[in-house]
C-alpha cells in the first residue's frame, strides 16, 4: 500500500486515490506476472508438465507469437490447455488510430473487466518508443489531464502492462509500422495512471522487460522511463531497486502555490521535498532525471517562473537534471491551453542561461487525441 501521510496543517484532505477500489476481480494469472519458477509451478498446479513453461515463455517473449497454432513444439493434445493456463487473453484492441504517416499508432484497449486503457507506439528514424498505461484511470486529480478527470478505476496487473509492450513489439516485428521490421528500444510509463501508485506491478513489469529471453524481453533498463507526479516515498524506494531506469518527474510548476492547484499531491509533498527525492534518485543511480513541464498559456509559462524553476533545480555540482517542456495537448472544454511559441522559446532561453539543459518535446498524434485518456474518455 502506498504511503498517504496527512496533509499539512491548514490544508484540506484531498480526494486522491492511492489504492484501487476494493471488490474488483483480478485479471487472470499470466506468465508475464511470474518469474520462471512461478510459471512452472502454475502449470504443475493445473496438472500440466512444468517444463513447458520455458517453451511458452520463448513463444511469448522471444518469438512474439500470439497464435497457438504456431506453437508447434507443444503437443497438440495439450496446446490449448497450456496456452489457456499461462497465456490467457488479457486485453482486446477496440480501436487503433494512426498519425504521422502511420509511424504514430494509438490503441484503445478493453481489459477483461471492461476497463479502458491506451498505449501509443511511436517510430522515429533512430528508435521506436511505446508509451504504456499502468492504471485504468488515475487518482491524482490533476485538472489539466484527461485521465485525471475520470478518477481511478483500478490498477493494472504486471502482465497487462507488459502486454502493451509485447503487442507493440509484434506490430514492429511484423512490419505493420512504416519503415520495415524493427524492435522496441524505449518504453515510457507516461500513459494513463500514476505508475508509482501501482508500484509492485510496475516494478514487476520493468523486470519482465529487462529479464533476458526467454524470461523477458531482454531490453536495457536505460531505455525505460518511469514517470511520477511526485510520490516521494516511492521515488526513494525506486532509487534502491537496483534497476537504472530513467525517472521522469512531472513537476509543471516551480512554486507550491501554483503546483498545489495543478498537481494536488503537492499539498502532501512540497516542491522542495519532491525535487529533493528526484535529486536523491540521481545521486543514487547516477542517472539524469527528466523534469516534465507541461506548458500552459498564462498559467505556468511566465518568464519569472522559468527563473524560479532554474533556481529550484540548482543542486549538486553535476548535470543531474534535464528539463523537458511539453506543449500542452489540449483537452476539449478545458480552461488549460497550449503556451504561445514565443513564450516557450523565452522559457527555454531563461533556463539555459542558468545552465539547465532544456528541450521542447516533439509532440505527436494531436490529431488522434494522443493525450493520455482522450480516447478512453471519448469511448
Automatic annotation (TrEMBL):
Do you know which Gene3D superfamilies this protein is assigned to?
Answer: 1.10.150.530, Aldolase class I
Q: Give the region (Disordered) as residue ranges.
A: 1-33
Q: Name one Pfam family in it.
A: Radical_SAM
The coenzyme or cofactor needed here is: [4Fe-4S] cluster
Q: Which residues bind S-adenosyl-L-methionine?
A: 193-194, 227, 250-252, 329
The family database entries (InterPro entries) matched by this protein are listed as: Aldolase_TIM, Methyltransferase_A, RNA_MTrfase_RlmN, rRNA_lsu_MTrfase_RlmN/Cfr, rSAM, rSAM_sf
Q: According to its UniProt record, where is this protein mainly located?
A: cytoplasm
Q: Which residues form the Radical SAM core domain?
A: 124-366
Binding sites annotated in the UniProt record for [4Fe-4S] cluster: 138, 142, 145
Q: Where in the cell is it found?
A: Cytoplasm
| Keywords linked to the UniProt accession | 4Fe-4S, Cytoplasm, Disulfide bond, Iron, Iron-sulfur, Metal-binding, Methyltransferase, rRNA processing, S-adenosyl-L-methionine, Transferase, tRNA processing
Reactions catalysed, as given in the entry: adenosine(37) in tRNA + 2 reduced [2Fe-2S]-[ferredoxin] + 2 S-adenosyl-L-methionine = 2-methyladenosine(37) in tRNA + 5'-deoxyadenosine + L-methionine + 2 oxidized [2Fe-2S]-[ferredoxin] + S-adenosyl-L-homocysteine; adenosine(2503) in 23S rRNA + 2 reduced [2Fe-2S]-[ferredoxin] + 2 S-adenosyl-L-methionine = 2-methyladenosine(2503) in 23S rRNA + 5'-deoxyadenosine + L-methionine + 2 oxidized [2Fe-2S]-[ferredoxin] + S-adenosyl-L-homocysteine
Cofactor binding mode and count: Binds 1 [4Fe-4S] cluster. The cluster is coordinated with 3 cysteines and an exchangeable S-adenosyl-L-methionine.
The molecular function terms of the Gene Ontology recorded here are: methyltransferase activity
Q: Which family does the record assign? A: Belongs to the radical SAM superfamily. RlmN family.
Comment field (misc) = Reaction proceeds by a ping-pong mechanism involving intermediate methylation of a conserved cysteine residue.
Q: What is this protein called?
A: Probable dual-specificity RNA methyltransferase RlmN
Encoding gene, per UniProt annotation: rlmN
Amino acid at each position: 500500500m502506498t504511503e498517504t501521510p496527512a496533509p499539512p496543517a491548514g490544508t484540506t484532505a484531498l480526494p486522491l486515490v492511492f489504492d484501487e477500489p476494493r471488490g474488483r476481480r483480478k485479471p487472470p494469472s499470466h506468465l508475464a506476472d511470474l518469474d520462471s519458477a512461478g510459471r512452472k509451478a502454475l502449470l504443475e498446479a493445473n496438472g500440466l508438465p512444468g517444463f513447458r513453461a520455458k517453451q511458452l515463455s520463448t513463444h511469448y517473449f522471444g518469438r512474439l507469437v500470439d497464435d497457438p497454432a504456431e506453437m508447434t513444439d507443444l503437443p497438440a493434445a495439450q496446446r490449448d490447455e497450456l496456452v489457456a493456463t499461462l497465456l490467457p487473453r488479457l486485453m482486446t484492441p477496440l480501436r487503433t488510430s494512426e498519425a504521422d504517416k502511420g509511424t504514430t499508432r494509438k490503441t484503445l484497449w478493453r481489459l477483461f473487466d471492461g476497463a479502458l486503457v491506451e498505449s501509443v507506439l511511436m517510430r522515429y528514424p533512430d528508435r521506436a518508443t511505446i508509451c504504456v498505461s499502468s492504471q485504468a484511470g488515475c487518482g491524482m486529480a490533476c485538472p489539466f489531464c484527461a485521465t485525471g478527470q475520470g478518477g481511478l478505476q483500478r490498477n493494472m496487473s504486471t502482465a497487462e502492462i507488459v502486454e502493451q509492450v509485447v503487442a507493440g513489439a509484434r506490430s514492429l516485428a511484423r512490419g505493420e509500422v512504416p519503415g520495415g521490421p524493427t524492435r522496441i528500444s524505449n518504453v515510457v510509463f507516461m500513459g494513463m495512471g500514476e505508475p508509482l501508485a501501482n508500484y509492485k506491478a510496475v516494478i514487476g513489469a520493468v523486470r519482465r522487460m529487462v529479464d533476458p529471453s526467454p524470461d523477458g524481453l531482454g531490453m536495457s533498463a536505460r531505455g525505460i522511463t518511469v514517470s511520477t507526479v511526485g510520490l516521494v516515498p516511492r521515488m526513494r524506494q525506486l532509487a534502491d531497486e537496483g534497476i537504472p531506469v530513467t525517472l521522469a518527474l512531472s513537476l509543471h510548476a516551480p512554486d507550491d502555490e501554483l503546483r498545489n492547484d495543478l498537481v494536488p499531491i503537492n499539498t502532501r509533498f512540497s516542491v522542495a521535498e519532491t525535487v529533493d527525492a528526484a535529486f536523491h534518485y540521481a545521486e543514487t543511480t547516477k542517472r539524469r532525471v527528466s523534469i516534465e513541464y507541461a506548458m500552459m498559456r498564462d498559467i505556468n509559462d511566465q518568464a519569472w517562473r522559468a527563473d524560479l524553476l532554474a533556481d529550484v533545480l540548482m543542486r549538486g555540482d553535476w548535470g543531474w537534471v534535464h528539463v523537458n517542456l511539453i506543449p500542452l495537448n489540449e483537452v476539449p472544454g478545458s480552461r488549460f491551453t497550449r503556451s504561445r511559441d514565443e513564450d516557450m522559446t523565452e522559457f527555454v532561453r531563461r533556463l539555459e542561461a542558468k545552465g539547465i539543459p532544456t528541450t521542447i518535446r516533439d509532440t505527436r498524434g494531436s490529431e488522434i487525441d494522443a493525450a493520455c485518456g482522450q480516447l478512453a474518455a471519448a469511448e
